[in-house]
Protein backbone atom coordinates (compact mmCIF):
# COMPACT_ATOMS: atom_id res chain seq x y z
CA UNK A 1 0.00 0.00 0.00
CA UNK A 2 2.80 2.37 0.96
CA UNK A 3 4.30 1.79 -2.52
CA UNK A 4 1.07 3.06 -4.17
CA UNK A 5 0.42 6.03 -1.88
CA UNK A 6 2.84 8.50 -3.62
CA UNK A 7 1.54 7.32 -7.00
CA UNK A 8 -2.15 7.86 -5.98
CA UNK A 9 -1.45 11.24 -4.52
CA UNK A 10 0.36 12.21 -7.76
CA UNK A 11 -2.70 11.08 -9.80
CA UNK A 12 -4.99 13.07 -7.47
CA UNK A 13 -2.76 16.11 -7.88
CA UNK A 14 -2.83 15.76 -11.70
CA UNK A 15 -6.65 15.49 -11.72
CA UNK A 16 -6.92 18.60 -9.56
CA UNK A 17 -4.50 20.45 -11.85
CA UNK A 18 -6.41 19.47 -14.97
CA UNK A 19 -9.66 20.67 -13.35
CA UNK A 20 -8.11 24.05 -12.59
CA UNK A 21 -6.79 24.29 -16.13
CA UNK A 22 -10.13 23.42 -17.71
CA UNK A 23 -11.92 25.85 -15.35
CA UNK A 24 -9.37 28.51 -16.18
CA UNK A 25 -9.93 27.90 -19.87
CA UNK A 26 -13.42 29.30 -19.43
CA UNK A 27 -12.25 32.33 -17.56
CA UNK A 28 -11.59 35.48 -19.51
CA UNK A 29 -10.73 39.01 -18.47
CA UNK A 30 -12.51 42.09 -19.73
CA UNK A 31 -11.13 45.46 -18.62
CA UNK A 32 -9.49 43.86 -15.59
CA UNK A 33 -12.64 41.95 -14.51
CA UNK A 34 -12.78 38.14 -14.77
CA UNK A 35 -15.83 36.44 -16.24
CA UNK A 36 -16.81 32.89 -17.11
CA UNK A 37 -17.73 32.41 -20.77
CA UNK A 38 -19.90 29.46 -19.75
CA UNK A 39 -22.18 31.77 -17.74
CA UNK A 40 -25.70 31.13 -19.15
CA UNK A 41 -26.24 34.86 -19.74
CA UNK A 42 -23.64 34.68 -22.54
CA UNK A 43 -25.32 31.74 -24.28
CA UNK A 44 -25.67 32.28 -28.03
CA UNK A 45 -23.94 35.68 -27.92
CA UNK A 46 -21.09 36.58 -30.25
CA UNK A 47 -17.75 37.69 -28.80
CA UNK A 48 -18.60 41.28 -29.63
CA UNK A 49 -22.03 41.09 -27.98
CA UNK A 50 -20.50 39.56 -24.83
CA UNK A 51 -18.08 42.49 -24.67
CA UNK A 52 -20.92 44.96 -25.09
CA UNK A 53 -22.92 43.27 -22.34
CA UNK A 54 -19.94 43.33 -19.98
CA UNK A 55 -19.24 46.94 -20.84
CA UNK A 56 -22.86 47.86 -20.04
CA UNK A 57 -22.71 45.88 -16.77
CA UNK A 58 -19.47 47.57 -15.74
CA UNK A 59 -20.90 50.97 -16.64
CA UNK A 60 -24.09 50.36 -14.65
CA UNK A 61 -22.08 49.16 -11.67
CA UNK A 62 -19.81 52.21 -11.55
CA UNK A 63 -21.87 54.91 -13.23
CA UNK A 64 -22.67 56.83 -10.02
CA UNK A 65 -19.00 56.96 -8.97
CA UNK A 66 -17.92 57.93 -12.49
CA UNK A 67 -20.51 60.68 -12.69
CA UNK A 68 -19.57 61.99 -9.25
CA UNK A 69 -15.89 62.04 -10.24
CA UNK A 70 -16.69 63.85 -13.48
CA UNK A 71 -18.80 66.47 -11.66
CA UNK A 72 -16.04 66.98 -9.11
CA UNK A 73 -13.43 67.50 -11.87
CA UNK A 74 -15.75 69.88 -13.75
CA UNK A 75 -16.35 71.90 -10.58
CA UNK A 76 -12.61 72.16 -9.94
CA UNK A 77 -11.99 73.15 -13.58
CA UNK A 78 -14.64 75.88 -13.44
CA UNK A 79 -13.33 77.22 -10.12
CA UNK A 80 -9.80 77.37 -11.54
CA UNK A 81 -11.06 79.21 -14.62
CA UNK A 82 -12.96 81.73 -12.48
CA UNK A 83 -9.82 82.33 -10.42
CA UNK A 84 -7.73 82.96 -13.55
CA UNK A 85 -10.36 85.40 -14.87
CA UNK A 86 -10.50 87.18 -11.50
CA UNK A 87 -6.73 87.55 -11.50
CA UNK A 88 -6.70 88.85 -15.07
CA UNK A 89 -4.80 85.84 -16.42
CA UNK A 90 -7.67 84.83 -18.69
CA UNK A 91 -10.23 86.81 -20.61
CA UNK A 92 -13.84 85.96 -19.81
CA UNK A 93 -15.57 84.48 -22.85
CA UNK A 94 -18.96 85.90 -23.83
CA UNK A 95 -21.88 84.31 -22.02
CA UNK A 96 -24.12 81.84 -23.86
CA UNK A 97 -26.93 84.37 -23.61
CA UNK A 98 -24.83 86.99 -25.37
CA UNK A 99 -23.71 84.51 -28.04
CA UNK A 100 -27.31 83.45 -28.67
CA UNK A 101 -28.38 87.07 -28.96
CA UNK A 102 -25.72 87.78 -31.60
CA UNK A 103 -26.16 84.52 -33.52
CA UNK A 104 -27.21 85.04 -37.13
CA UNK A 105 -29.81 82.62 -38.50
CA UNK A 106 -28.96 81.27 -41.97
CA UNK A 107 -31.34 79.71 -44.47
CA UNK A 108 -29.79 76.26 -44.00
CA UNK A 109 -31.95 73.54 -42.45
CA UNK A 110 -30.35 71.00 -40.17
CA UNK A 111 -32.64 68.07 -39.59
CA UNK A 112 -32.08 65.35 -37.02
CA UNK A 113 -33.90 62.15 -37.90
CA UNK A 114 -35.10 60.74 -34.56
CA UNK A 115 -36.63 57.56 -35.98
CA UNK A 116 -34.02 55.04 -34.87
CA UNK A 117 -34.69 54.58 -31.15
CA UNK A 118 -35.74 50.97 -31.62
CA UNK A 119 -32.21 50.21 -32.87
CA UNK A 120 -30.41 51.56 -29.81
CA UNK A 121 -29.69 50.15 -26.36
CA UNK A 122 -30.79 52.19 -23.36
CA UNK A 123 -27.29 53.49 -22.90
CA UNK A 124 -27.03 54.49 -26.54
CA UNK A 125 -30.34 56.36 -26.28
CA UNK A 126 -28.99 58.28 -23.28
CA UNK A 127 -25.90 59.07 -25.32
CA UNK A 128 -28.03 60.24 -28.24
CA UNK A 129 -30.10 62.48 -25.94
CA UNK A 130 -26.87 64.11 -24.74
CA UNK A 131 -25.76 64.59 -28.34
CA UNK A 132 -29.07 66.27 -29.10
CA UNK A 133 -28.62 68.61 -26.13
CA UNK A 134 -25.10 69.52 -27.27
CA UNK A 135 -26.25 70.07 -30.88
CA UNK A 136 -29.10 72.31 -29.74
CA UNK A 137 -26.77 74.37 -27.52
CA UNK A 138 -24.07 74.72 -30.19
CA UNK A 139 -26.57 75.75 -32.84
CA UNK A 140 -28.18 78.31 -30.56
CA UNK A 141 -24.88 80.04 -29.77
CA UNK A 142 -23.11 79.64 -33.14
CA UNK A 143 -22.18 82.87 -34.94
CA UNK A 144 -24.10 81.45 -37.95
CA UNK A 145 -26.89 79.15 -36.88
CA UNK A 146 -29.15 76.80 -38.81
CA UNK A 147 -32.87 76.17 -38.76
CA UNK A 148 -32.65 73.10 -36.56
CA UNK A 149 -35.47 70.58 -36.53
CA UNK A 150 -35.97 67.25 -34.82
CA UNK A 151 -38.24 65.08 -36.93
CA UNK A 152 -40.01 61.74 -36.30
CA UNK A 153 -40.00 62.66 -32.62
CA UNK A 154 -42.72 60.37 -31.28
CA UNK A 155 -44.33 60.23 -27.83
CA UNK A 156 -42.05 57.37 -26.73
CA UNK A 157 -38.97 59.46 -27.41
CA UNK A 158 -40.57 62.53 -25.80
CA UNK A 159 -40.93 60.43 -22.63
CA UNK A 160 -37.23 59.56 -22.83
CA UNK A 161 -36.34 63.24 -23.25
CA UNK A 162 -38.60 64.19 -20.31
CA UNK A 163 -36.77 61.71 -18.14
CA UNK A 164 -33.18 62.13 -19.30
CA UNK A 165 -33.06 65.78 -20.38
CA UNK A 166 -36.10 67.48 -18.77
CA UNK A 167 -34.90 70.97 -19.73
CA UNK A 168 -35.59 70.13 -23.38
CA UNK A 169 -39.10 71.50 -22.74
CA UNK A 170 -37.51 74.94 -22.40
CA UNK A 171 -35.85 74.73 -25.80
CA UNK A 172 -37.05 77.84 -27.56
CA UNK A 173 -39.09 77.52 -30.74
CA UNK A 174 -36.82 80.22 -32.15
CA UNK A 175 -33.89 77.81 -32.02
CA UNK A 176 -35.44 74.42 -32.77
CA UNK A 177 -38.65 72.94 -34.09
CA UNK A 178 -39.88 69.48 -33.19
CA UNK A 179 -42.38 67.32 -35.01
CA UNK A 180 -43.70 63.79 -35.16
CA UNK A 181 -43.70 64.12 -38.94
CA UNK A 182 -40.95 62.80 -41.15
CA UNK A 183 -38.64 65.10 -43.12
CA UNK A 184 -40.53 63.98 -46.23
CA UNK A 185 -43.64 65.76 -44.89
CA UNK A 186 -41.73 68.93 -44.05
CA UNK A 187 -39.41 69.54 -46.99
CA UNK A 188 -39.32 69.22 -50.78
CA UNK A 189 -37.57 65.96 -51.66
CA UNK A 190 -35.25 67.87 -53.99
CA UNK A 191 -34.00 70.01 -51.14
CA UNK A 192 -33.10 67.07 -48.92
CA UNK A 193 -29.56 65.71 -48.53
CA UNK A 194 -29.10 62.83 -46.12
CA UNK A 195 -25.61 62.96 -44.62
CA UNK A 196 -23.97 59.57 -44.47
CA UNK A 197 -20.37 58.42 -44.09
CA UNK A 198 -21.34 55.55 -46.43
CA UNK A 199 -22.24 57.82 -49.34
CA UNK A 200 -20.14 57.96 -52.53
CA UNK A 201 -20.89 61.66 -52.91
CA UNK A 202 -18.78 64.24 -51.13
CA UNK A 203 -20.29 67.48 -49.93
CA UNK A 204 -18.39 70.58 -51.10
CA UNK A 205 -20.44 73.31 -49.49
CA UNK A 206 -23.73 73.89 -47.70
CA UNK A 207 -26.35 75.46 -49.90
CA UNK A 208 -28.99 77.98 -48.84
CA UNK A 209 -32.52 76.57 -48.80
CA UNK A 210 -31.37 72.95 -48.53
CA UNK A 211 -32.11 70.61 -45.64
CA UNK A 212 -29.24 68.45 -44.37
CA UNK A 213 -30.36 65.37 -42.48
CA UNK A 214 -28.30 63.74 -39.74
CA UNK A 215 -29.21 60.21 -38.68
CA UNK A 216 -30.18 60.38 -35.00
CA UNK A 217 -28.49 57.22 -33.88
CA UNK A 218 -25.64 56.02 -31.69
CA UNK A 219 -24.76 52.55 -32.93
CA UNK A 220 -20.93 52.29 -32.99
CA UNK A 221 -21.58 51.66 -36.68
CA UNK A 222 -23.34 48.35 -35.99
CA UNK A 223 -25.91 49.32 -38.60
CA UNK A 224 -23.59 50.14 -41.46
CA UNK A 225 -25.32 51.79 -44.45
CA UNK A 226 -28.49 52.29 -42.42
CA UNK A 227 -29.01 55.94 -43.35
CA UNK A 228 -27.52 55.58 -46.82
CA UNK A 229 -29.96 52.74 -47.61
CA UNK A 230 -32.93 54.56 -46.06
CA UNK A 231 -32.27 57.68 -48.15
CA UNK A 232 -31.67 55.69 -51.35
CA UNK A 233 -34.97 53.84 -50.88
CA UNK A 234 -36.74 57.17 -50.41
CA UNK A 235 -35.05 58.67 -53.47
CA UNK A 236 -33.13 61.26 -51.46
CA UNK A 237 -29.62 62.45 -52.29
CA UNK A 238 -26.86 61.50 -49.88
CA UNK A 239 -23.42 62.93 -49.20
CA UNK A 240 -20.50 62.44 -46.86
CA UNK A 241 -18.32 65.10 -45.31
CA UNK A 242 -15.06 65.77 -47.20
CA UNK A 243 -12.89 64.42 -44.36
CA UNK A 244 -10.52 62.49 -46.63
CA UNK A 245 -9.84 65.58 -48.76
CA UNK A 246 -8.52 67.47 -45.77
CA UNK A 247 -7.25 65.04 -43.14
CA UNK A 248 -5.46 61.71 -43.12
CA UNK A 249 -7.36 60.07 -40.31
CA UNK A 250 -6.42 56.65 -39.00
CA UNK A 251 -9.61 56.32 -36.93
CA UNK A 252 -13.13 55.77 -38.25
CA UNK A 253 -14.71 58.53 -40.28
CA UNK A 254 -18.16 57.85 -38.87
CA UNK A 255 -18.84 60.74 -36.54
CA UNK A 256 -21.42 61.40 -33.85
CA UNK A 257 -24.51 63.54 -34.35
CA UNK A 258 -23.11 66.50 -32.40
CA UNK A 259 -19.69 66.28 -34.09
CA UNK A 260 -21.34 66.51 -37.52
CA UNK A 261 -23.52 69.34 -36.29
CA UNK A 262 -20.52 71.23 -34.90
CA UNK A 263 -18.52 70.74 -38.11
CA UNK A 264 -21.37 72.15 -40.21
CA UNK A 265 -21.78 75.12 -37.88
CA UNK A 266 -18.04 75.85 -37.92
CA UNK A 267 -18.01 75.57 -41.71
CA UNK A 268 -20.85 78.11 -41.91
CA UNK A 269 -18.76 80.42 -39.74
CA UNK A 270 -15.36 80.08 -41.43
CA UNK A 271 -16.15 78.45 -44.83
CA UNK A 272 -13.11 76.21 -44.44
CA UNK A 273 -13.54 72.45 -44.02
CA UNK A 274 -10.10 71.82 -42.58
CA UNK A 275 -10.59 74.43 -39.87
CA UNK A 276 -14.10 73.08 -39.23
CA UNK A 277 -12.82 69.50 -38.76
CA UNK A 278 -9.91 70.56 -36.57
CA UNK A 279 -12.11 72.69 -34.35
CA UNK A 280 -14.98 70.24 -33.97
CA UNK A 281 -13.31 66.84 -33.77
CA UNK A 282 -12.18 65.69 -30.33
CA UNK A 283 -8.48 65.28 -29.53
CA UNK A 284 -8.67 61.48 -29.54
CA UNK A 285 -9.96 61.49 -33.15
CA UNK A 286 -7.23 63.94 -34.15
CA UNK A 287 -4.41 62.07 -32.38
CA UNK A 288 -2.94 60.53 -35.52
CA UNK A 289 -4.29 63.02 -38.02
CA UNK A 290 -2.15 64.78 -40.58
CA UNK A 291 -3.44 67.46 -42.91
CA UNK A 292 -3.64 66.29 -46.54
CA UNK A 293 -1.16 68.37 -48.56
C1 LIG B 1 -23.21 57.71 -35.53
S1 LIG B 1 -23.61 58.14 -37.15
C2 LIG B 1 -24.70 56.85 -37.60
C3 LIG B 1 -24.04 55.72 -38.32
C4 LIG B 1 -25.05 54.84 -38.96
N1 LIG B 1 -24.57 53.48 -39.01
C5 LIG B 1 -25.45 55.28 -40.35
O1 LIG B 1 -25.99 54.45 -41.09
O2 LIG B 1 -25.27 56.45 -40.70
C6 LIG B 1 -24.74 59.47 -36.95
C7 LIG B 1 -25.02 60.28 -38.17
O3 LIG B 1 -24.00 61.27 -38.37
C8 LIG B 1 -23.84 61.54 -39.74
N2 LIG B 1 -22.43 61.25 -40.10
C9 LIG B 1 -21.50 60.61 -39.35
N3 LIG B 1 -20.32 60.59 -39.97
C10 LIG B 1 -20.49 61.22 -41.15
C11 LIG B 1 -19.64 61.51 -42.26
N4 LIG B 1 -18.35 61.16 -42.27
N5 LIG B 1 -20.19 62.16 -43.32
C12 LIG B 1 -21.49 62.52 -43.31
N6 LIG B 1 -22.32 62.28 -42.30
C13 LIG B 1 -21.84 61.64 -41.23
C14 LIG B 1 -24.81 60.68 -40.48
O4 LIG B 1 -25.98 61.41 -40.75
C15 LIG B 1 -25.07 59.56 -39.50
O5 LIG B 1 -26.30 58.97 -39.73
Automatic annotation (TrEMBL):
Enzyme Commission number, as recorded: 2.1.1.221
Q: Which GO terms describe its molecular function?
A: tRNA (guanosine(9)-N1)-methyltransferase activity; tRNA binding
Enzyme class of the recorded protein, top EC level: transferase
* GO BP annotation list: tRNA N1-guanine methylation
Key words of the record: Methyltransferase, S-adenosyl-L-methionine, Transferase
Q: Which reaction does it catalyse?
A: guanosine(9) in tRNA + S-adenosyl-L-methionine = N(1)-methylguanosine(9) in tRNA + S-adenosyl-L-homocysteine + H(+)
Q: What GO cellular component is one of the record's annotations?
A: nucleus
* Alphabetical list of InterPro entries matching this protein: MT_TRM10-typ, MT_TRM10-typ_sf, tRNA_m1G_MeTrfase_euk
Q: Identify the residues that the record assigns to the SAM-dependent MTase TRM10-type domain, covering every copy.
A: 95-288
User: What PANTHER family does the entry give?
Assistant: TRNA (GUANINE-9-) METHYLTRANSFERASE, TRNA METHYLTRANSFERASE 10 HOMOLOG A
The entry's protein name is tRNA (guanine(9)-N1)-methyltransferase
Q: Origin organism of this chain?
A: Rhizopus oryzae
Amino acid sequence: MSVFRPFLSRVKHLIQCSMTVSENNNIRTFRGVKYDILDPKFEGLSKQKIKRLLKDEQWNEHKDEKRALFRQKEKARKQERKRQIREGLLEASPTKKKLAATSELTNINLVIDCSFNHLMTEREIVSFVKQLGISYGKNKTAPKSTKLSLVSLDDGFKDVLNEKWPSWKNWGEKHVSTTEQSYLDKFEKNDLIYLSADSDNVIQELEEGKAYIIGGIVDKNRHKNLCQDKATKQGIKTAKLPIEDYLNMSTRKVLTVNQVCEILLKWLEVRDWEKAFLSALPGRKLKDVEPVC
